[in-house]
Design brief:
Blueprint: H1 4-15, H2 18-25, H3 29-43, E1 48-51, E2 54-57, H4 59-85, E3 92-97, H5 100-103, H6 106-114, E4 119-120, E5 125-126, H7 128-137, E6 142-146, E7 154-169, E8 179-180, E9 189-193, H8 198-209, E10 215-220, H9 223-231, E11 236-240, E12 249-254, E13 259-267, H10 273-281
Parallel strand pairs: 3-4, 3-5, 3-6, 8-12, 9-10, 9-11
Antiparallel strand pairs: 1-2, 6-13, 7-11, 7-12, 7-13
Length: about 280
């Protein structure tokens, strides 16, 4: 029996949708479906009724879910205890959604890591959804994400919030404005962060509310490139308020109070909950 399949069952049960569950687990729906069928065969039970609306748990499925939640927690605690016995101190791993390292207090986090030997000191950024998936799967203990997670079993606390600004170059038609409505950038050339960043998807969604798609001419991996492209008049930029105004570029408030929010996130049932709570408190 592969106990990792219990996590697969848990996500399918909570999502009630094979495709959504597979996406969170970074599996194909076919592969995840096979795992569920194998579990059912192994236990000689039907855990789900497959319907057009999704996967509906049977009475056996409800019982199995209740039991494996406790098993998953105990397995997690067992792994930590075994690591202690084997003197593997670095068990608490932290993940960063793309862009968060730029905003959080690095000095404060570094000091916390140095004073807590259980934390593996690494600074690797990845996609926002991947950070959440790694927390859910138990691959990392704590994550900094953009936007409040909606996934079940994740506890989150607001760490920092920055206003999303419109940055324009001197001489642009909006240069003297103090604020703009989002629909005023409809025909502008827009520079913003790429699809790996939460702000890209927020921009698309916000513009759709005004019935237009933004004319994005440049996508970057980090904010400095946005600033440089604006300076060279490639377009105007949408970015969290990372940059001070200068003689060449200034930020303009976008009506609607759009924000870029960083949350500290961890599983409610993590065996290292105490460390996670202390990490949140240090911010």
């Amino acid at each position: 029996m592969n106990t990792k399949n219990f996590k697969c069952f848990q996500i399918v049960y909570e999502e009630k949708n094979l495709s959504l569950a597979a996406k969170k687990l970074f599996l194909t729906p076919q592969g995840l479906g096979k795992i569920i069928r194998n579990l059912e065969e192994e236990f000689g039970a039907t855990f789900f009724i497959r319907t057009k609306e999704g996967f509906v748990a049977t009475e056996s499925g409800h019982l199995f879910y209740k039991k494996i939640k406790d098993i998953n927690k105990e397995l997690n605690e067992l792994m930590i205890e075994v690591e202690h016995l084997e003197k593997k101190e670095k068990r608490f791993k932290v993940g960063f959604a793309a862009g968060t390292i730029k905003s959080i207090n690095i000095d404060r986090l570094e000091k916390f890591m140095l004073h807590n030997n259980e934390i593996e000191r690494s600074w690797i950024e990845c996609e926002n959804d991947l950070v959440k998936a790694k927390i859910l799967n138990g691959d990392i203990s704590f994550g900094f994400t953009i936007g409040k997670p909606k996934e079940k079993n994740l506890k989150s606390f607001l760490i920092d919030s920055k206003e999303v600004m419109l940055y324009v170059y001197k001489g642009h038609r909006l240069w003297d404005r103090e604020s703009v409505d989002l629909n005023e950038i409809k025909n502008e050339s827009i520079i913003t962060m790429n699809e790996k960043h939460h702000i890209y998807h927020d921009l698309i969604d916000a513009c759709n509310v005004y019935d237009f798609s933004p004319n994005i001419v440049a996508l970057t991996t980090e904010g400095e490139s946005i600033y440089r492209l604006i300076k060279n008049r490639i377009g105007i930029g949408i970015s969290p308020s990372f940059y001070p105004d200068s003689e060449e570029i200034r930020g303009i408030h976008i009506n609607g109070d759009y924000t870029w929010d960083i949350y500290g996130v961890y599983r409610e049932d993590t065996a290292d909950k105490e460390i996670a709570e202390k990490l949140v408190e240090c911010f």
